[in-house]
Structures are given as C-alpha cells and as structure tokens.
C-alpha cells in the first residue's frame, strides 16, 4: 500500500509543477486526474483489504499472551 501512496505523492508534486506553469491547461487537468485516479485506487484497495478481528490486533501487539498461543497437534 505504501507504493501507491508514494506514487500519489509523486503525481501530486508533478501536478503542482505543471499547474504552476499554466493552471488552466489541459495538462494541468490531466495531471490532477491522475492524482484522483490513484487516490481512488488506494481507497478501493483499503476498502477491500481483509480486516483483522480485535483478537488478531491484540495478538499482533501481545504475541506472548495466553490467548494468542498456537497449539499444534
């Protein structure tokens, strides 16, 4: 997920640079469209990411807790 965030930052910086030259140009609009599309994709990925249960979150923070032990047969 951090890769898409980095790409969003790069595209945002690029859009700012393009729009500093001419804020009414088609290139400026296209640059911000690219930022918007990447942001939408990031939101979509976040929405579809499997959500951890409260026990899974607890065990991530406290792997040595009794509740988090895994017994194999």
List the helices and strands and how they pair.
Blueprint: H1 2-21, H2 26-48, H3 54-61
Helix pairs in contact: 1-2
Give an account of the 3D structure.
It is a single chain. The chain is mainly α. The protein has one domain. Helices cover 70% and strands 0% of the residues. The protein is built from three helices and no strands. The chain has helices at residues 2-21, 26-48, 54-61. The longest helix is centred in the middle third of the chain and has 23 residues, at 26-48. It is rod-shaped.
Features:
mainly alpha; 0% strand; rod-shaped; 73 residues
* Oligomerization status of the protein chains: single chain
Low-confidence regions: none
By DSSP (H or I, 4+ residues per run), the number of helices equals 3
Which outline best applies? rod-shaped
Quick synopsis:
This protein has 73 residues and is an all-alpha fold. Helices cover 70% and strands 0% of the residues.
